Amino acid sequence: MRNRPLPVKARAPVTYILYPSGSRVATFCHPEPVEGRRERTAERSAIEAACYNQPMDFAYCYSPIFMDHKTGEHPENPQRLVVINNEVEKFIPRETWPEVWIDPPDATHDQIAEIHTRGHIELVQSTCAKGHSALEMDTPISPLSYAAALKAAGAGIHAVESVMSGKIKCAFCAVRPPGHHAEKDRAMGFCLFNNIAIAAKYALKNGAKKVAIVDWDVHHGNGTQHSFESDTDVFFASFHHWGIYPGTGHQSETGKGDAEGLTVNYPLPGDTGDDKYLSIMEEDLIPKLREYKPDLILISAGFDAHEADPLGGMNVTDDGFKKMTKLLMELADETCNGKIVSFLEGGYNLSTLGKTVALHVKTLMED
Ligand SMILES: [Zn+2]
User: For ligand 1, a single-atom ion, which residues have Cβ within 5 Å?
Assistant: First the structure.
């Protein structure tokens, strides 16, 4: 984990720092200190120890409302976040580090409308309010799905804002519904609003000049590609199982007009494993990203290319996802001071998903 040291004076052997009484453990690392003398107590030592170990430059964006997007027996269901949170709590317990567990604000209609039509936003709202059970064949909803979708989009915006302002270095958005299939004017493939595209647009309107999006979900990120395929300020790359849903993402899809070359598709055959993913990343994608020099890297982190996933048909291991994460972190360190925001997309094996995502999160938190 990254550690942020206490102020030097706090570590001096005799002089301790007096903080406002009643402060919680985590806020002891931040306030303006008042110098004074104070006996070292067990409580004081515990506070310092907690500060030393706190991953303060990382955010895990999650909201309980994501559980209220009910989808019945569908593979994209609330239990996914239960197993993920259980594993993540093992190294960032919610009770100990509430500052890391961020319950983000909702995205506004205007922020979502940077990517989607107003008609689509209103349709999602009204269809959920009417209690309908699906927006389209693959995309079940429940009455609170609209509220969850506003929050999922808001998570990305909040994470990007925090990273861009330097408050944190990187973040993971443990969100659902996922987003990368959602098109400008319609829901698609379990996705209502395109969380990562909305976040990228927010970044560009708030200081970023170039954003890179890497999508390793096993399905092509059609909605994200279509949002930016004519834009020179977004580089989009997708690894996906060729021949399955949604059917787009041929390697001939390379961007349009001035943005030719800024969309890169890696359609792969079934059973592709770590070696191929990593060699593509090292030999083709990373050099392209290095040349592009993004200010911010976003990851559409689906885990349905995992070897145990029931839908994906690929053979990526936990270690493969870890190594891909590391490669993007090294690139981010090189081009944009490590700024990365990762978004949960797919991943459907409830027995393995928690550990896989937790390893990705833990890797993001490492130096
Ligand atoms: Zn997927």
Answer: 217-219, 302, 304, 346
